[in-house]
Design a protein that fits this description.
alpha/beta; six-stranded mixed β-sheet; 17 helices; Rossmann fold; nine-stranded mixed β-sheet
């Protein structure tokens, strides 16, 4: 019996363990941290041995294959020892796809917009009556779904660069890259090309009848596409010009123009639930993905109209004393903050901070000069924020908790202003995750609203 070791016992790791056990492997799970109670129970219920708080090398280095959770760095000591021992290290997605026989994979990655695009694509396919599930970096573990009794015909997967790094034989029927901007460079030796190469792994192994969809206006994407040779069909989306096949969403108009080979269509979208230029791009990407699996235009239009904006992504929270509070906790890189600022009006009190990932804040300067009246820096180390904005923004206040943050925002904002939580940073210094940060923000705003 072959032995599989899973490093990390979160959603993806436990899903991989359950699937491996079902397929008859000897399984061992090792987590250097503390396993959450619900995941420990799942492992116990499936009679899967595990350890936490350590990595026992003798138990790990005798594996025939190792499935690594995406949060574990490729230069972690145990991973380096596995590589030195020539033991294959793969991702949960790579492993699960082996057993999803006959399934079609619609896969989405990008520095920003991938979650909205993934959920919208899933909603469209679901509306069309397809047998579809959503998994990956959002929602369920793909492996856990594959381990279940029902085998889906379609999977819509959000894939992070960390997941793509350990995928080798996996093939996407439809691959989407929403954009590429600097993010997670601390995981890629602070080299943009390394990060770009990671994102382009989503196109790996694609064949002639497969589809690759990308944002033509993105200079990094455009340059990278021109450097490579392609066998699959390329489709683009743009806010500037339409290519065939592709989609075009003029910024000042409420319609999408689609060129689909010999067929063209104009889909009106007046009063969209998704606002801002970035969401126009997300919509186009989802439309092209849905068309790539032959979903009818009328179904697409209905699904987009019914779609509800995501939590923690330019999410209106409420109004207090004429000040709008907006939760963009998922804005964990500079490009996401740019889009969020572009969506809201002037008079912004901007909440930045957290674990900096090598951010270059200079791309925000023009919008900050135009819109931002004050910055509340919420993090253990706010040095990068001060270095970027001292002398440019008059009021910069340092805080260490969400309650302290909201109190500072109340003092800085007046009627007509917007308090925007769009941190540009990871959340792990003061919060457990970006959802925790966003929920605490909403809870503090709710307290203000209840006092009125």
């Amino acid at each position: 019996m072959s032995k599989i070791v899973i490093l990390g016992a979160g959603e993806s790791g436990v899903g991989a363990a359950v699937l491996a056990k079902k397929k008859g492997f000897e399984v061992f799970v090792s987590d250097y941290g503390t396993i959450k109670p619900q995941y420990a129970k799942m492992l116990a219920d499936n009679n899967i041995p595990y350890e936490q708080g350590k990595h026992t090398e003798s138990q790990i280095l005798d594996a025939q294959e190792v499935i690594k959770s995406p949060g574990i760095k490729n230069d972690a000591p145990i991973v380096l020892k596995l590589v030195a021992a020539n033991i294959p290290v793969i991702s949960e997605i790579e492993f699960a796809a082996r057993y999803a026989e006959g399934a079609h994979f619609v896969c989405i990655t990008g520095s920003n917009g991938k979650t909205t695009t993934t959920e919208l694509t899933y909603s469209i396919l679901k509306k069309a009556g397809l047998d579809v599930a959503m998994a990956g970096n959002v929602g369920n573990s793909l492996a856990m779904l594959v381990a279940g009794d029902h085998q889906y015909e379609y999977y819509v997967l959000e894939l992070s660069s960390f997941q793509l790094d350990n995928m080798y034989d996996f093939r996407a029927d439809v691959a989407v890259i929403t954009n590429i901007t600097p993010d997670h460079l601390d995981r890629y030796d602070f080299k943009m090309q390394n990060y770009t190469d990671s994102k382009f792994r989503i196109t790996r192994n694609q064949r002639k009848n497969d589809v690759f969809i990308y944002f033509a206006d993105d200079p990094i994407l455009d340059a990278e596409v021109k450097k490579r040779e392609w066998v699959q069909q390329l489709k683009t989306f743009s806010l500037k010009a339409c290519q065939d096949p592709g989609a075009f969403f003029p910024f000042d108009d409420n319609y999408i123009e689609i060129l689909d080979g010999f067929f063209s269509a104009v889909l009106p979208f007046v009063g969209l639930p998704l606002r801002g230029a970035h969401n126009r791009c997300n919509i186009m990407a989802a439309v092209l993905a849905a068309r790539s699996v032959d979903v009818h235009y009328t179904v697409i239009e209905d699904a987009v109209r019914e779609f509800k904006p995501l939590e923690h992504r330019v999410e209106p929270v409420g109004e207090v004393d004429g000040v709008q509070y907006v939760n963009d906790s998922k804005g964990t890189n500079v490009d996401a903050v740019w889009y969020a600022l572009d969506t809201v009006g002037d008079g912004v009190v901007l909440i930045l901070g957290g674990v900096d990932k090598g951010n270059d804040y200079s791309q925000l300067f023009d919008l900050v000069d135009k819109k931002v009246k004050a910055i509340v820096a919420m993090g253990v180390d706010n040095t990068p924020i001060h270095k970027a904005f001292d002398g440019r923004v008059k009021n910069i206040v340092d805080v260490r908790s969400m309650a302290e943050c909201i109190d500072a925002c109340r003092k800085l904002a007046v009627a007509g202003d917007t308090v925007l939580l769009s941190p540009a940073c990871a959340s792990f210094d003061l919060f457990t995750c970006y959802e925790d940060r966003g929920e605490q923000f909403k809870a503090e705003v709710k307290k203000l609203m209840e006092k009125k």
